[in-house]
Design goal:
alpha/beta; Nucleotidyltransferase, domain 5; 39% helix
């Protein structure tokens, strides 16, 4: 028996799964929550990395209860992308980690972009714009706002790197997660001297060498072996960002498939053999964690919006689905821009929600809920359309996240995307993907030619009972509504800038 542990450390909790490589099934799981630091200024989103460690320990112990621990061969770690974990020379955490959803670094983005010579120059150098969520501006924020902490900085880590470091004692960074720092030239897979110089030359020594995603980070430390009751020979794979691991866990390791995650935030991405650079910078030019590339769009507002309306109107999840079905397609002209938490795509960090079309008929819960769900889905479809414009094919969209479990919402997704949509049988895609990457890493030690596709085959299953096909008349309707949605968003951008001056 060969068992592999997959970890997914997200914004709200750590999930652990135990994957049996012989039966190609998840046989056990565990979960433990952690929390954001409360009371911070608007736009600041931070967590204590020690909470991730404690939650991972708890989730693994829960998952391993009743499992033959001597059969564990490898561990893979998925982590929330872009977070900045600063360590000093003693490998102690200097301050809490600033997260992907932290939008306090708008000024730092502008400074780096200006130092590089503008947005076009930046995209040509590294393949991406400088966005508040990325890691690079967080480092400059530390230098500008906490210079005493910046002077102590010795190691830059991402969330999954820090958990790998805890497990192995090795300082290691792979191409996939590193490509989301905006410090890396994604075409050449090297650190960008220009971006580093635009922040501070001394951080060159604070970054590790970059490694292939097929390599092992190392083996578990003796203390970890004893704590978990697993062999000291257990290998920890490279791991990766949650989107990179989610791609593996949804079988998105070859061209023609897109994955859409309808969680707190939303992402849509597709595997590609070559780097996909968007000259407009709307699609992030990421590497994946298997040796390929993962062009991706992220929106900040998905189930944040639907849950907000569900709670506002005091409905359970079944009633939410019923409300969507009762309201007509297009909610009789009620349209929502769902930027409750600002927005990353389009880049409006200080944006807010907007509803247009309220009247005596649409001023009711069913219509508002439908408009909110349609608005969120069209925001995601902006990314799918842009991927297609850049030559990325998507004949099927595989769905993950809480929003995809709503049947009425799934039909809207298929109609807005104009593409068949289907859920996964194993919904913890990132944790499963991490376990599969670990299995691939261990397999390559005896046979370097083993492909990730052969590891994924049979392990990733579609829930065919969830499959929905687009309805042609609805597809045509939503194409027109999508165009209006995009023009409304574009016209509101300067108004958001003015409005942000009056926000408390």
């Amino acid at each position: 028996m060969s068992l592999f542990i997959g970890i997914d450390s997200g914004t709200q909790s750590v999930k652990a799964v135990v994957y049996d490589a012989e039966t190609k099934r998840v046989i056990a799981d565990g979960r433990s929550p952690h929390h954001l630091i409360s009371g911070l200024p608007s736009g600041h989103m931070e967590q204590d990395p020690q909470q991730w460690v404690d939650a991972m320990d708890q989730a693994i112990h829960e998952a391993l209860a009743g499992v033959d621990r001597s059969a564990i061969r490898g561990i893979g770690v998925s982590g929330q992308q872009h977070g900045f974990v600063p360590l000093d020379k003693s490998d102690q955490i200097i301050r809490p980690a600033k997260l992907w959803c932290d939008t306090s670094t708008v000024e730092e983005c502008e400074i780096i972009t200006d130092n590089i010579g503008g947005e076009d120059s930046l995209i040509s150098m590294v393949g991406n714009r400088m966005l508040p969520g990325f890691t690079a501006p967080k480092i400059l924020w530390l230098k500008r706002h906490e210079p005493e902490n910046f002077d102590r900085l010795s190691k830059v880590m991402l969330p999954h790197d820090y958990l790998n470091f805890y497990l192995t004692g090795e300082w290691f960074m792979e191409f996939g997660d590193a490509s989301g720092t905006a410090l890396m030239d994604v075409r050449m897979r090297v650190w960008s001297d220009e971006v580093i110089g635009a922040i501070d030359d001394r951080i060159r020594d604070c970054l590790p060498g970059l490694s292939s995603s097929s390599e092992a980070c190392g083996q578990v430390r003796k203390e970890i072996s004893e704590k978990y009751g697993i062999p000291v020979s257990v290998v920890v794979s490279a791991g990766g960002g949650d989107n990179m691991m989610g791609a593996i866990g949804t079988g998105n390791v070859s061209q023609g498939i897109a994955t859409a995650s309808f969680g707190t935030s939303g992402t849509i991405y597709a595997f590609n053999d070559e780097p996909v650079i968007d000259p407009r910078g709307e699609i992030a030019a990421f590497c994946d964690s298997t040796g390929g590339f993962l062009p991706l769009m992220c929106t900040m507002n998905v189930t944040t919006v639907s849950e907000g309306f569900r709670k506002l109107f005091e409905k359970d999840h079944h009633e939410l689905a019923s409300a969507i079905e009762r309201a007509p397609i297009g909610a009789d002209g009620l349209v929502m821009l769902p930027y409750l938490e600002g927005e990353r795509t389009p880049s409006i960090p200080s944006g807010s929600g907007l509803m247009i079309g309220l009247n005596g008929k649409t001023l009711q819960s069913d219509y508002m809920i439908r408009a909110a769900v349609e608005g969120v889905t069209m925001g995601m479809n902006f990314g799918l359309n842009r991927l297609r414009e850049l030559g990325v094919t998507a004949d099927e969209v595989r769905l993950t996240g809480g929003g995809s479990r709503n049947e009425a919402w799934r039909q809207i997704i298929a109609d807005v995307f104009g593409t068949p949509a289907v859920c996964m049988r194993e919904d913890e895609g990132a944790a499963l993907g991490a376990a599969l990457q670990a299995a691939w890493c261990v397999s390559r030690q005896s046979d370097p030619q083993v492909s990730i596709s052969s590891i994924v085959e049979g392990a990733v299953e579609l829930d065919e009972s969830s499959r929905v096909e687009p309805e042609p008349s609805a597809v045509e309707f939503y194409q027109e509504l999508q165009a209006f949605h995009a023009s409304l968003s574009k016209s509101m951008e300067p108004h958001y800038e003015v409005h942000s001056r009056f926000k408390s």
